[in-house]
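Posting this for the archive.
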Amino acid sequence: MYLPDDLYREVKDRGFAPSKLLQEAVRVELRRQRLLGETDSYLAEVLDEVGEPDAEDYAWAQALAGRIARSAHREAV
């Protein structure tokens, strides 16, 4: 694998092993891509089973998300 010189120097200056760091980054990205694919497949199955949400469903979801966000904000303060 190749790192541009500036990135290589910064990685080394911070005490990281470039090869190990790159390998871990590739593993993480591959896992992320696999999980995104699995999520897409799951959502397609759900939509096949229950259908597309309508305007009422979206309004309910937005209201719920707002309540959750307000609750999280109150707990954080």
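The chain has three helices and no strands. Residues 28 and 34 are 10 Å apart (CA to CA).
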